[in-house]
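Could you please consider the sequence and fold appended to this message?
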Amino acid sequence: MEGSSKSKVPDGHSVVKRLQSELVQLMMAPSPGLSAFPESEEDLTKWCGIITGPDGTPYEGMRFRIALEFAPTYPYTAPKVQFVSPMWHPNVDMSGNICLDILKDQWSAVYNVQTILLSLQSLLEEPNNSSPLNAVAAELWDNDMHEYKKN
């Protein structure tokens, strides 16, 4: 029984409405190789996503699962996003944590799930090796792509 009172500060209702809108947007205008959806109908704040590795990268043709968790303050705070699939990448640690500016200090309320998916897919093409979470991967990306691809 939720009231329609607008005086409440995030009661979860606005985040659910926003996520419902984003889900419709993703279904109506899907991006190639990207998808995301709520894990269950009961909780729209936990999503899983799939990112397909871009052509011409070491990840070409691979599919990676990610988990997205939205706080009651979304879209004013970035969701928590992690790789669930094992990921060898300069900007991803062994636990699946991601170093990406738009998920940290560069987050903006104009960003959405599609922005996040596109940014992660782009990160697979062009890692930010000046700020690596996996220094070994960053070193190999820059100096030995053959060895990088083996990992």
In short: The longest strand covers residues 46-52. The CA atoms of residues 24 and 30 lie 10 Å apart.
